[in-house]
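Section 5.1 Outputs to date
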Amino acid sequence: MQLPALTGIRAFAAFWVFARHFRTELIDAFPPLRVFAPLMNTGYLGVDLFFILSGFILTYTHFDRLSDGYNWRKALGFLWLRIGRVWPLTAFVLLLFGLYFVFQFVAQPGTHGNPAYAAQADPGQLIQHLLLIQAWFPQPLTWNGLDWSISAEWLAYLVFSVGVVVLARFALVASRRTTIILIAILTLPMIIIGCTMQDDTILLFAKNSDTMLFGVSPVRVITEFWIGALLAILLRGRLAENRPIRFPLATVASVASIAVIYVVTAVDTTPWIRDGSQQFAGGVDMIARSSTIIVLPLFVLVIAGLAIGRRDPLVWLLSTKPLQVGGRASYALYLSHALVIGFGLAVLARVSSVPARDAVTVGVVIAAWAFAWVLWRFIEEPSRKLARKVLPATIKV
């Protein structure tokens, strides 16, 4: 059974992250967008939405085949398919970042270029990124700072490839109430951690630092991934029998999520700001309150509603063709948009007229999606198909 709305929501989640990183330029070009500032400021929550969604989709897709006659070959087959899905594009974008650092180094004024860009191209850090282990322990974000979440996801895949055995036994004996309670419990660690962190740390950094807080990345991805996995177990009977709900759960939960973000921002008038951070830009509050992580349970309801809803307006919207295309290119957009924004900022620095700056801002948004589609079409999708093709036919995952 296909769940197209869960593909479409990926487009929104990826663009939410993009809007977080490009929000100042968007608001400068189009001042009415300042009303969306609290929502754009919290774009890092798109990563949390992705983590839950990943656990749901992978459990929905692979649970039966993995757990039925589980063995090490199936576990390795699952991991092979996952690495074939995420690693080639991750590595390719890292190559592009290396070229970007070289460009920035030689393009800067001075005989020897800007050493700051040369310092970013650290070979040891590159190896960690290629091994997808850079987010497992505290360190600053380097190279493609966005792929910390891919490293975290890889950890979740490793745990799931073994933990699916426990999940299978749990599914046989656990009641719906027990499953719901466990899902609720798993939302607590990041809510508690997030509410104690400094604001605008994207639920990642240590106090007054740009270094990842010890343990927060593994806790974040493991709890949220398994929330999604348990949700898939909870709904698997309804999905198998194709019994949709009529209540527009996804739409209601999405509206409630947005309302919570605005309420938290309005109530918290004295954010705990990191040293050197600027709260306002052009009179607009640009600091995201870390306590907005309390929307996490609502994200669970959004995904549940998208999976089992049929007459929901949001399900219809996310199932439309443009959002299906956007959803398929969402991973590429997430990984590569910092490069497009970087080049866009370089162009903006050389443009003075207001109409031209507005045109460049719109161009960056369009270019980010266009570039993502190219990466998906010619790098990500062929790699995924090749990984599936070379997997032995005897391994059914």
